Fold DUF5672 domain-containing protein.
Amino acid sequence: MALINTIEERRRKSRNILLSAFLILLFLWTVKLCFPQSTILNVYSQHTESISTSAPPPQQSTTNKGQSASQTGNKISLESGSFNGTLATKAAVIVETQFRTNLIPLVLHFSGVLGPSWPILIYTSMESVGQFSASAALNRYLKSGTVQIRMLPQTVLFTNSDSVNEFMTTKWLWEDLAPAKHILIFQSDSMLCANAARSVDDYFAYDFVGAPVAKNLGKGYNGGLSLRKRSTTLNILEKWDWQKTKKEGDRFEDQWYFNRMTEIQKEEQKEGIQPEEEGAINLPTIEVARTFSVETIDYPHPLGVHQVHMWLKEQMLSLDEWCPEYKLCSEG
């Protein structure tokens, strides 16, 4: 009887070992699919940091992450226009806590217009990762590293515009994007037009550019499709606190950033510093900004559009000719 029990015990242990090995392999395969350019250690570190705190991670961790990637030999070749998984000078970013059916076609279109030297980072919740990785078309981009999925802290939940404003005015995102210098923020209701003669790279001289806001609606540029310098953004977050310094005209995070930049620019002008000088705040005119993106102020041939279903219904006919891709934008 004792011998039978011993045999059964050994069989049970063998089954447990095989089951454990299978689950580990399944976990490793899932992580590699979602994070093709990351090691398991890096992914685990990011996830545990997200769970442990909603505060911005230490600058050292993002620096180490960039160093680890560079040590593996991953680099961007700007001359060849290729990309193999490591941030260098630029990155396109979309933040969505919930999966939308138009997101994958939207991301693939942005990748096609921006080109292979632009990595696209999808920041999303853990619950939505599987829905992104289910697309065979997107998986090809995930495996090459041109598109990457990154986890948001579990405390991040976008329930209204205030929660979005708060997230965009904390350091977490901007530090996590190190060492990229130029960040293209886009949302599911924005679009880049493939017919445009200009490219996003043509606007690198500016610290912040987006669709200019009509005077009766505010001032500055809309952030839903915007190009921003990461260093300038972090500099503002070092000097000002969003919750403590909001003033009239600072209803949204993009207007708050614009107003803080204009404050800095006025101080620089008093000191005789010109916008074109290195390190100075350089903001585009309305005429230049509307060539980048259109929302409440029309332009016949913009590089991109934002919320056109809401603001420029009378221009839909011309968009059908110039930027038919706008139909991929979310209307809500």
Observations:
- Residues 36-84 have pLDDT under 50 and may be disordered.
- The first strand starts at residue 90 and ends at 95.
